[in-house]
Amino acid sequence: MDYRRIIPCLDVKHGRLVKGVNFVNLKDVGDPAENAAAYSDAGADELVFLDITATLENRPTMLDAVKRTVERISVPLTVGGGISTCQGIEELLALGVSKVSINTAAVRNPDFLKDATQQFGGKKITVAIDTASNNSLASGFEVMVSGGTKGTGQDAIEWAKKVEALGAGAILPTSMDTDGKQTGYDIPMTRAIADAVSLPVIASGGAGTLEHLYDAIAEAHADAVLVASIAHFGTFTIAEMKGYLAGRGIPVSQ
Questions:
Q1: Looking at the 3D structure of the chain, how many domains does it have?
Q2: Which residues of 49-65 are buried (b: 16+ CB within 10 A; e: fewer)?
Q3: Judging by beta carbons within 10 Å of its beta carbon (0-12, 13-18, 19+), is residue 7 exposed, middle or buried?
Q4: Catalytic residue (one of 11, 45, 179, 215)
Q5: Integer CA distances (angstroms), 191 to 37, 157, 188, in order
Q6: Which of 31, 130, 155, 186 is catalytic?
């Protein structure tokens, strides 16, 4: 059975779990390891840990916070933020991380992405693509880097195809236009990427209702949904999310 996955996202800044809107106005919402343990116990399929200021601060991912998180969970963990070398990937995998997520470093140096997929296997490498609307590009979506602060002029759909060709195992597209607003995922952007590649695509940025999760899967063809605000602030439990999807005919793990 090919299940659709619910993946809580832990945005971490200086070792603390935070949540914001459009990547700014961050609120402290606790300890990442404690929250991760609660989600793991509650039935989350996987977890994503993003060190959201690592790239901007020109430093590697905070390994101690990752280590504490890995030790508390029994589900796969993907870690991203500040990963720009194969040695950095090796250090994270050695801690027990299941996959890494690369964003800015892959855009700036596609050869690094190619080296990483060859050295560790595509299944270990997820490429995160931050997007923003830009009508001057063919698809209407531009690749953003450096924590969503800089435009690249690159078409997000073309980049997604290149990422697949370079051997990545999954794509995690986040819309800067919808992130943290809880008004729903960017369905046109997510669907455009999902339909352009044969890789699993994880919808990210903007879930506010249970119906938004359904729309990301049914309309945007996502294989998984990343959730943050609706999980962190207790709007819905993982069980409620899965129950709703199951009730609408989406296969989920129990």
A1: 1
A2: bbbbbbbeeeebbbbeb
A3: buried
A4: 11
A5: 31, 10, 5
A6: 130
DSSP state of 205: S
Nearest residue to 12 (alpha-carbon basis) of 47, 58, 49, 63:
49
Looking up tokens 């800089």, which residue turns up? 150
User: Which residue range forms the structural domain that includes residue 203?
Assistant: 5-247
List pLDDT tens digits, range 172-211.
999 999 988 899 999 999 999 999 999 999 999 999 999 9
Q: Is 179 a catalytic residue?
A: no
Is 45 noted as a catalytic residue in this protein?
no
Residue 24, in any domain of the structure: yes
Tens digit of pLDDT for each residue in 7-62?
999 999 999 999 877 667 788 888 999 999 999 999 999 999 999 889 889 998 89
